[in-house]
């Protein structure tokens, strides 16, 4: 006669599962988190005509040093003109100036919220530093690069297209006419930058003339005008750049900034200098390389530009795929015309930062627009909630991040005289040097590097 086994006896007979160390459990959680982050794949290609294009690729940036879970990536193109010193200087200094303008030890969402404003501060700070050090820097560089060639360029400037990728969030800041486009899974091609060519941008022409500059074409013998619209003095075709110390202060370094969040379907960025965009439209560039790996896609875009126009200028292209971790390449999608709703979302327009929290989705591709602003006025770009110095007796300049006593500067929104009635704690603080730069950009006074 068989005796029945009790429930306790059955439990005793079951094999015991081994204990899992806490470190292993944490590791599994971290791996699960990493699966939610996209994979970044990129390609780069270039052909040199003048040798003034530079680019940056950094995949190992960290919001918190030493913490891999806070990583983000940076891709940038610097299209120099009148020499290479500005492009090199900006490449070496801009990222640090942007990061230093964001408070330390903040959560990721706060970091992303502060990033557009920090990009503005970083661009302006880098321009001020180059204006002060650019001449010495050019002399230093010439001793290595230009002396043997028999010529010397005392001044230079550069366009900048600067892309920060943190998870599925893409933030783009730009001055000049290099461009960044987004090609989503639905086949919609969207501009993430605004061209600052005087020929094409009416708002910038009006701003330059209102600030004291003149806009016109080159006059040749007989009074005929030729070529694109230029800003005088200096003759630059652009209304925004970093550097260019020999042109008026109305050529400003304040970037257009746009921040979007992709769906987990991902997307492709094409970042390129004007050597590409003078030959190819945004749609043509995107369509020409769909379905190809990023490395091959970049080469094909450059090849297509060369076939279309010849090598008229430096051509540099970065292709960046933001894709789910388990996909080797973005799938090819048929080209679709942009509908009215998505064109309203991705059209060339400026948003005040107050609209930042408004969630807008494109009809195709599920791209959420988080922020867009393009004003050249610092008071509109730095906001009123810029962090103050941790020392209550000091102000921190919102641009150069230097702590100074209140008597040495003014609030960006204050009048010409500092007094308690001006409420200097409202709005970001600027030191005297950066305040002078701001006034000069607005046509109020000349700015002389010190």
Automatic annotation (TrEMBL):
<dbReference type="Pfam" id="PF00481">
    <property type="entry name" value="PP2C"/>
</dbReference>
<keyword id="KW-0479">Metal-binding</keyword>
<protein>
    <recommendedName>
        <fullName>protein-serine/threonine phosphatase</fullName>
        <ecNumber>3.1.3.16</ecNumber>
    </recommendedName>
</protein>
<keyword id="KW-0460">Magnesium</keyword>
<dbReference type="GO" id="GO:0004722">
    <property type="term" value="F:protein serine/threonine phosphatase activity"/>
</dbReference>
<keyword id="KW-0464">Manganese</keyword>
<keyword id="KW-0904">Protein phosphatase</keyword>
<comment type="similarity">
    <text>Belongs to the PP2C family.</text>
</comment>
<feature type="domain" description="PPM-type phosphatase">
    <location>
        <begin position="34"/>
        <end position="322"/>
    </location>
</feature>
<dbReference type="InterPro" id="IPR036457">
    <property type="entry name" value="PPM-type-like_dom_sf"/>
</dbReference>
<dbReference type="InterPro" id="IPR015655">
    <property type="entry name" value="PP2C"/>
</dbReference>
<dbReference type="GO" id="GO:0046872">
    <property type="term" value="F:metal ion binding"/>
</dbReference>
<dbReference type="InterPro" id="IPR001932">
    <property type="entry name" value="PPM-type_phosphatase-like_dom"/>
</dbReference>
<keyword id="KW-0378">Hydrolase</keyword>
């Amino acid at each position: 006669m068989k005796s029945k086994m009790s429930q306790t006896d059955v439990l005793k007979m079951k094999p015991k599962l081994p204990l899992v160390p806490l470190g292993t459990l944490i590791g599994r959680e971290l791996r699960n988190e990493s699966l939610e982050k996209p994979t970044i794949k990129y390609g780069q290609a270039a052909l040199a005509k003048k040798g003034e294009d530079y680019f940056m690729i950094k995949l190992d940036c960290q919001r918190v040093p030493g913490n891999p879970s806070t990583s983000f990536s940076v891709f940038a193109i610097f299209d120099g003109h009148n020499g290479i010193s500005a492009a090199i200087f900006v490449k070496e200094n801009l990222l640090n100036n942007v990061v230093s303008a964001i408070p330390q030890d903040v959560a990721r969402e706060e970091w992303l919220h502060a990033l557009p404003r920090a990009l503005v501060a970083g661009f302006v700070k880098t321009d001020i530093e180059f204006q002060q050090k650019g001449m010495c820097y050019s002399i230093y560089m010439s001793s290595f690069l230009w002396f043997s060639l028999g010529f010397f360029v005392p001044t230079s400037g550069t366009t900048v297209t600067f892309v920060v990728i943190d998870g599925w969030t893409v933030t783009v800041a730009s001055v000049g006419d290099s461009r960044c486009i987004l090609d989503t899974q639905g086949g919609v091609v969207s501009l993430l930058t605004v061209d600052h060519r005087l020929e094409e941008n009416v708002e910038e022409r009006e701003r330059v003339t209102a600030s004291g500059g003149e806009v016109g074409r080159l006059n040749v013998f007989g009074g005929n005008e030729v070529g694109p619209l230029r800003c005088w003095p200096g003759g630059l075709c652009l209304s925004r750049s970093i550097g260019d110390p020999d042109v008026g202060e109305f050529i400003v370094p304040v970037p257009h900034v746009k921040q979007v969040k992709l769906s987990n379907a991902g997307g492709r960025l094409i970042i390129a200098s004007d050597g590409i965009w003078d030959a190819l439209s945004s749609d043509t560039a995107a369509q020409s390389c769909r379905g190809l790996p990023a490395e091959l896609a970049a080469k094909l875009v450059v090849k297509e530009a060369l076939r279309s126009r010849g090598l008229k200028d430096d051509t540099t292209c970065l292709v960046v795929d933001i894709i789910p971790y388990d996909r080797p390449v973005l799938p090819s999608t048929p080209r679709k015309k942009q509908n009215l709703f998505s064109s309203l979302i991705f059209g060339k327009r400026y948003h005040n930062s107050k609209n930042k929290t408004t969630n807008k989705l494109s009809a195709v591709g599920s791209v959420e627009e988080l922020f867009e602003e393009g004003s050249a006025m610092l008071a509109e770009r730095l906001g009123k909630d810029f962090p103050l110095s941790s020392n209550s007796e000091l102000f921190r300049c919102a641009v150069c991040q230097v702590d100074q006593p209140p008597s040495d500067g003014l609030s960006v929104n204050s009048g010409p005289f500092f007094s308690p009635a001006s409420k200097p704690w409202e709005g970001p603080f600027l030191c005297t040097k950066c305040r002078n730069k701001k006034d000069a950009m607005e046509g109020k006074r000349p700015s002389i590097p010190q």
